[in-house]
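Many introductory courses stop at the sequence. We go one step further.
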Amino acid sequence: MNQNEAVFRDAPVRTAVVRMAVPTVISSLVLVIYNMADTFFVGQTHDAMQVAAVSLTNPVFVMFMAIANLLGIGGSAVISILLGQQMHKEAKTASSFCCYASLIFGVLSALIILPLMDPLLSVLGSTQNTIQPAREYLFYIAVGAPFILFANTFGHVVRGEGAAKASMVGGMIGTVVNIVLDPVFILTLNMGTAGAAIATVLGNVCGCIYYVWYFMRRSSMLSIHPRHLRGDKHQMVQVVTIGIPAGVNSALMSIATVLLNNALVQYGDDPVAAMGIVTKAYLFIVFIHMGITNGIQPLLGYCFGAGLRRRFLDILKFSGILTVVCGTALSAVYIIFSRQIVALFIDDASVIAYGGPMLIATSIAGPILGLLFLSINSMQALGRPLPATMLSVCRQGLIFIPLLYILDAGFGLNGINFTQAVADYISIVLAIILLVQTLKAFTGKSESENSLHISQTASNL
């Protein structure tokens, strides 16, 4: 048993959660900064139309993240379960599949987007004022799709063997490169949105180089060698099946953002720019939650694979409390300093006036949003993709989309502002119900001690 596997099985629960969650939270925050950097530096041009253009094309980047999450989070969950079952050869098959699937999806994405760019931008909600900077940004993002997908997929995959620090380092390399190059390309070379996209792609290229080095030199249990693709195809199917909830959640975020932007366009380009800033800023809270829950997913998967039921529940309980504490503190800051936070991105009175109330409305669900992601990831770790997928579909699809039109029709722009928070609260209630049912199935209803532990866990969540 190596050091990473010892953390999965033997370390005290709090130590194990911190050991896995902290690097993953840092990696998530690095990704948030990565996303914020383009908007922040484009905002320094004081051109609200360029900010709006980046916001309008963001759904494409989010769709890339959907594919990366499907392969990466699915791969991480499958790998941790296989390692818990001591199936090391099969774990290498899963990681190798994630490698080549991410590259193939990246190439296909570029081949689809580039010839269909103008129709796609029209669907995304571009206007005459925003279409040119949006086109410049999207072109380079599409060209860099294989690198973006590979880097972000393996930011998740390496955590499957407990290498949370490697995930953090890979993400930080890409972010530092992006942040250094953004002001050079955007402001010094006056390349605007095109410069932002080029910096993003180069950052991901550097992340790819690091992960390839990691697999060649440091990883003992995973592989990206094509020979492992000749293994049992069952692992590949499992990766996709278990990764579907994470992929669906991100894909629906992309679709929801497109519909949201189209709903906002009727109120002008400034609300679109403001919501783009709010969405990027709120990702800080969302990714704190996702960092904690993604970080502990390999722990949960290993416990499931190894049959460590009590340890599974203890990890779940501690992580749930942790997300609520962190979410409450951050949401309070966002609500109190909403206008100041928006003003960090752009010095435009109109955009700030729209953005302040938007950020307050969106942040209301922040304290307990982590319970939704915790429920989804727990079900993935238990090999239960169907209820996890249901929750993902509800939050950004079945609940969010109808609410968007209902609240817009009933309350106008204010209704749009509160759509995400209302959808989140409804989804969280459903998540708790499905989680309790899934835990009962895992532990067995006849075991009174485990049933009591489930009730205590649910009440604490």
